[in-house]
Amino acid sequence: MGKKNKDKKKGKGAEKTQAKTEKRLSNKLKKALKNLGEDDIESIVVQIENEEKKRQQVTEAVVEQPSRRLNFSFVAHPEKDQLILYGGEFDNGQKTMIYGDLYFYDLKNYSWTIVKAPGGPPPRCGHQMVVTSSNKGQLWIFGGEYASPTQSQFYHYRDLWVYHIVKKQWEKISAPNGPSARSGHRMVISKKQLFVFGGFHDNLRDYKYFNDLYCFNMETYKWLKLETTGTPPAPRSGCCMVALNDGRVLIYGGYSKEKVKKDVDKGHVYTDAFVLTPQKNDPTGTQFKWVQVKLGSLFSPRCSMPITSTPNNSSAYCFGGVFDIEEDEEDISGNFYNDFYQLDLEKLAWKTVTLCGKRDKDQKARRRKKDDEDAEDTESEEMEVQETVESTTISDDGIFKVTVGPVPVTSSTSLLQTLEETQLFRPSPRINAGMAIKHGILYLYGGMSEEGDKQITFNDFYSLDLKKLDEWKTIVHDNKNCEWLGSGSESEGEEEDSEEDEDDESDTDEESDED
């Protein structure tokens, strides 16, 4: 009995110590915020949401394209020829801006419209938004984060919102037992349910990655934490998540980090894949099993690459991504990519997407004529080549002998095709861009890359015909220098993009001076 009482006392002592530590850290934070001229971030978020509730009317305005950003949502309108963009963030090295604006892009007249509707959610990035044609079209948003301008504070959301597209009306869903506050999670719709997986929470003192799984019934408006069987994916954020036609859900890749020692973290990029499979003979539709699958190792490990599915869920497409190289405990450099891959959702296998280039009729006719002429001399040319390149010794010191073997014979046509493929334009390397598919056309917007210590955030806009797979078309070229005022800055004093961002976030500026 005495030992048990001692253990209890020890437990209470630890709780008191933890409480004192939290209070001490809270007081330090308040002093630091006072010096920075910032309010407590929770107060800021509440203030913004209260201001949104005061909005009485819907306002719409045709505007310039959205400003530079990443970690936003980008989806196709379920009925109209439009694309929809919401939220995101921009950092210029000294100030972080979090957006809460809602844009509609008209594919017919190439114009952007910003819509401000009453009672909307506070600004956020790293959230998830999905679209459904149910009830004349809805946007569902869960979670994400808000940061103070100096990034000295972060606030993670656990709220669920729906935007009724036809009514132009926001609605905050009050449903208990949902996921904890987080960002970097993933969410998909399947069988009239929202599935939320993973993500992370970081308050600058500690962080945690998740691998829990929740579903929200879009008919009963109830959350349920799913208790699954099988081996689940390890906790992670930023993974690829897509719904399959048969009710299964696929998870691929992602990122997490862990503490190695004090003030030193080690990141991990995942390349594994799992399928969430409904249990047979389950009338409730709430029993699932995790099954690990192999998609093939077609490309190098990476994270932060967006994925979007075709409307019939037969294929999904990924672009870009990054792999961080830890040079030492403090320095990390990233390899950014701009390659483009297709995921066959029926065979569950990656495919390389090869663009053929756009040719007019005259080019095709000349190509056929050239091919015919080449074919006549192919046999004799191959004989000559084989005689001259059987093997060549390039180093022989009596100990080691290096020999180059026969060079594969390649026709002039295939050489020309290879050359054309390498010369075809591709959007620059980046992470966390927005991708959406409408009428067989894939659209790519924004994202971020790095040049040394400098972050380059984009607002360029591209399209690719997924049937022709001929070439990327530039809708809007990013021809301005991105403002960066942090370390490695070469553009201090540039005001052009700063003014653009301030105009773009005017809805949040009106609601809070802290943004």
Would you tell me the structural class of the helices and strands? Answer: alpha+beta
Strand content: 35-45%
Nearest-angstrom radius of gyration?
27 Å
How many β-strand stretches? 33
**What do the pLDDT scores average to?**
82
Percent range of helical residues = 10-25%
Give me the number of helical elements: 6
Q: How far is it from the N-terminal to the C-terminal residue, by CA?
A: 57 Å
Task: Tell me what the structure shows.
There is one protein chain. This protein has 515 residues and is α+β, with helices and mostly antiparallel strands. 20% of the residues lie in helices and 38% in strands. It is built from six helices and 33 strands. The strands form ten sheets. It has a five-stranded antiparallel β-sheet, with no helix packed on it. Strands 6-7-10-11 form a four-stranded antiparallel β-sheet, with no helix packed on it. The chain has a four-stranded antiparallel β-sheet with strand order 12-13-16-17, with no helix packed on it. A hairpin with a 2-residue loop joins strand 12 and strand 13 (193-197). It is globular and about 55 Å long.
